[in-house]
Amino acid sequence: MRTAYSRQKSYADGHRCELEFEVGDHVFLKVVPMKGVMRFGRKGKMSPRYIRPFEILERVGTLVYRVALPPHLSTVHNIFHVSTLRKYMSNPSHVLSHEPLKLAPDLTYEERPVGILQRQERILRNRVNSMIKVKWANHTEQEATWETEADLRNLYPELFGK
C-alpha cells in the first residue's frame, strides 16, 4: 500500500507546477469546450481553450484570484482557481497595427478588390473554371481569396480594365 501511494505521489508531483501571480499580472482564462456549443466565435474542437489576457485585481486565497472581466462577461463570476489561469507573457509582436475603416452609419463597410495576385485554371469533370486570387482592401496578402473570374468580371469590371 505504501509503495503504491509513493508511486502515485511521485507521478502527481512530477506533473504539478506551483503557479503564483501578483496583482497587476495578466493571465489567460481557461474555458471548457463543449460539443456542439458555439464559444467565442468557434464551435467544437476549434473553440479556444484559453481566452484573452485579463488583469488580476487581487489575491483572494492561497490559490484563488479575482480577475477584471469586461462588461460582456458580467454574468460570469470573477473569482478563479489558479488551475484555470495561465500566465500571459506580453510581447510587442502581439500588438496588431490597423488602419481605420470608413464605416457607414449602420456600422458596415464595403469590401473592394485592390488587385489580382494570381490566376489558375481549375479543371472539373467536364468544364474548366478560371480562378483568380484577389487582394482585398483593408486586408493583407495572406488574407487574399480565390474567386471565380466570371463572378469578379460581373461585380467589378474596373478590376480587369479594357
Automatic annotation (TrEMBL):
Residues 118-162 form the Chromo domain. InterPro entries: Chromo-like_dom_sf, Chromo/chromo_shadow_dom, SH3_Tf2-1. Pfam families: SH3_Tf2-1 (PF24626). It comes from the Eukaryota. PANTHER family: CHROMO DOMAIN-CONTAINING PROTEIN, OS12G0499874 PROTEIN. This is Chromo domain-containing protein. It comes from Dorcoceras hygrometricum.
